[in-house]
Amino acid sequence: MPRILVIGNSGSGKTTLASRISNLFDIPHIELDAIFHQANWSPLEDDAFRDRVQTETLQTDWVVCGNYSIVRNIIWERAETIIAIDLPRWKNMWRILRRTARRAIRREELWNNNRESLKDVLAVHDKKRSIIRWAWSMHQDRRDEINRALVDPQWANKQFLVVKNRAGADEVVEMFRTLGR
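RE: above sequence
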């Protein structure tokens, strides 16, 4: 039974890929942002966040998307496959600009009635408010995290797949479709 983790920078396509895999296998899609971000963008308290993730990942099958270091060991120890999305910075920034503008203009609800606002989009001087600034500042950190994990003996028993573009994501989905469960 699949237990799959999808990691990568904000805007890289984690949620989209995880959703495709979830639909393919008809398994739960656990979106860490949806657990962490409570109403009014209030963060879930650390112990409660760990407890929720612990409970959600006790299921036999799942696909998780997200990069929260506070729950990394819980998820990574249980995952069988880790898919790392590692887009070039320019492509990642283009995707997050487009996605964030769409969400803000359309006032799309994300999690727990939260919405991105144009005010926050334009606050590029503040990485705590601007997802665009956050993605820019975290890009190299995420890439370094992926590269460290690939050679870390602690995770040698995991299947790692690195996705560099949309075609790579399509190939991963097709591989899972072909292999089945």
